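Fold this sequence, please.
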Amino acid sequence: MQVLICGAGRVGRHIARVLAREGNEVTVVDRDAALVERLRASTDVNAMVGYASHPDVLERAGARNADLLIAATASDEVNIVACEVAQAMFSVPKRIARIRAQNYLQPVYADLFSSANVAIDVVISPEMEVARSVARRILVPGAFDMIPLVRDRVRLVGVRCQPDCPVLNTPLRQLTSLFPELAIEVVAVVRDDRSFVPDPDDHMRAGDDVYFVVDTRHVARALAAFGHEEAAHRRILVLGGGNVGLALVQQLEREAEGINIKVIESDKSRAELVVDAVSRATVLHGDALDQELFEEAGVASCEAVVAVTNDDQTNVLGSLLAKRSGAGRCVTLVNGRSFAALAPSLGIDTVVSPNDITVSTILQHVRRGRIRGVHALRGGIGEIVEAEALDTSALVKKPLGQARLPDGIVVGAVVRGDRVIVPRADTQVRPGDSVVLFALREAVKSVERLFSVRIDYF
């Protein structure tokens, strides 16, 4: 596939690396020569300097032969125009644009990005995606990650194994006998910065980050099996009332009853805007690192503190200050890789990367075959994939034990109508089933072939 990416910032570079690594022909355009040179030096992609919205630049970048254009520059307007030019002048089949300004995304203007008005197939709002991701984590206490799949019939849950975890040193094959009514499948483990797909004889160790797929109705029991029985978060402090913070508060107010939310925002005019936009939350104007303001906000009694300001350092320091003041769990937004790698060792519970979330959202619209959803896990260790099985899929009409799945791929669940099936060696996938798989980074491309319409995959 030939992909043209407009913008060599964090998101542009990341998606370029992912797609190039999988064998796609990728070209990146950016007006910043330093960013272009950096990309050329670190990644095997074509990169050129130029204005991404200019027709001559897009033509030189190969727009006439492109299968996909991803507009992810720092300017919403450039992204919109680039998609318009790509469609009008070069008939690029699919166009994705990152739109950050919430003014464009207000419900009253919902028709703006319809196919009849603007030539954009998919609009991605990083702030909204991050807010949804943080809300999912807040609403599932004890998990550092949670992703709903197959119309929320199943969920991917990430938990850390603490020293008192009940299933430590227990072979995975015994989980079924220990919890016979629990529909759960462990699909990935991260141990000492190394990720792997466990086999039935592997066992969990203290400090492991474990990802499992579970029937949504069994989430609480699955968390308890891993030693996480934290109570629902009722008192939440949000540091930062920007687009992410505001969207998060609004979502929590819609989806969670009986919660008390307080917001600390340093900009007075923004704080006043947030006051008008929320229904129940209390908004405090002041510095997110002010100890006295923390005490006024009652941080010691908060089950969760969410740091989502525009500054990584403020988010990390604010989270540490909240933990020292007695707060329960901290969810911290971090853009820079160095901060993201450092945060867990400092005692921060959950790190959220806007770039990873944005790239994950883009990948959902890039994957081929009958793939309905893709979610990149933190640090790019792999992807959780939701796909529809067809008659021609290599998984259909044979026991999974005979399917010869490529290394690095494991089936987490099969959903047939309202029924969630925990995969076993004798499980047979039928056409129309939804299949949830985890694939390590190096095996992701094989998933596309697995669910393509071709029958000659193996």
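Residues 454-458 have pLDDT under 50 and may be disordered. The first strand starts at residue 2 and ends at 6.
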